[in-house]
Amino acid sequence: MSWRTTAPGGPPAAAAPALASAAGRDYLATRGQFFVCCTADPDAPELNTDPRVQALAIRKVKKRLAGNLLSDLILLVIYSLRIFGSPVLTLLELGTWFGLAGLACLLWLYGHSLASVCHLRRLQKQLAGGRPLDHQKDWHPARRRLFMRAGAWAAAVLWCVLLFSGWQEARLNRNRTPLAGYSGTLPFATLAQLRPDQSPAGWQADPLAGMLDDANQVNWYSDLLAAQVMEYSELARVSWADGQQLSAHLEVQYYELRSPALAAFLVQDIVRYDRRTGYKVQPLALEGIKADDCIAYTDVFPTIVLRQGCRVVRYQLAQFTESDALPLEQWAAAAAAALQQ
Predict the structure, then answer these.
(1) What's the rounded Cα separation, in Å, for the pair 309 and 256?
(2) CB under 8 Å, gap of 24 or more: what pairs does 81-90 form?
(3) CB-hemisphere CA count at 13 Å for 272?
(4) What phi, psi does 218 have (nearest 5°)?
(5) pTM for this one?
(6) Phi, psi (5° rounding) for residue 333?
(7) What phi and psi values does residue 250 have, to the nearest 5 degrees?
(8) Which is deepest, 20, 273, 283, 286, by most CB within 10 Å?
């Protein structure tokens, strides 16, 4: 039975409830394009029993689900490109468990949409062929699947809330500390250590540091893939015993991976990510650098990626004093030497 509504999403026309009542059923509510009726009489006749009419109704639902399937596919492709474009780096930035949970949610959303479209397509073909639905099937498995779907949807919504509310970012940044208050040992070279042949004579925060939220701060956390991840930012003016002075901004990302193979993969991830984000990565050959891997490029800001065993470090140095600027080969060798210790 096809009912005409008095308004989109509103109750059916007046004659329709009367017809349902004549068939022993009472109108309850409107659900989208469908109208819900109920009866306490197990022998009451079924409404809309023509399979071909039911097939037309299913066709409308299938079109809507096909649209959802396309949007889920777009989200899956975007996230997968980010994950698989530089998987180790992305998982370390998001947190491995959190990143994998997001991928699992997207895979479930797409799989659920695809399964729903395929299921409705089979039902539509069955009804269009004149074969009615089996109303005697056990409904308990369908109820269990409904609860599972509700749980998966709740998990996906929770993941999005944690991501877009900044909760996960705040969790990873919970140890962020100003350099002046950090008492630990840094496993990489700082600005003052980029000239290991000279003792540092002075250090002063650059006046521009107050304009950058993360300037002169260090953050650290551990992850499933890395025993330690550190993010370091130093914007300062340093001087050495021989009178040389340098005003510069040094950014360091340090990773202590669980295995050398993961570390080697991360080096390539970092280079791929820099290339995708606008760097014209043209690796430079540096002489005398003692490291398992050394990749350097000067586009945008001079950048060096080093690996020693399980440890990977990415340096980016912007120097603001041209007369006393440190040559790339010099500070790269100092960075590699610090990684050896």
Answers:
(1) 9
(2) 85/272, 85/273, 85/276, 86/269, 86/270, 86/272, 86/273, 86/276, 87/269, 88/225, 88/257, 88/262, 88/265, 88/266, 88/269, 89/266, 89/269, 89/270, 89/273, 90/269
(3) 16
(4) -135, 140
(5) 0.74
(6) -65, -40
(7) -110, 125
(8) 20
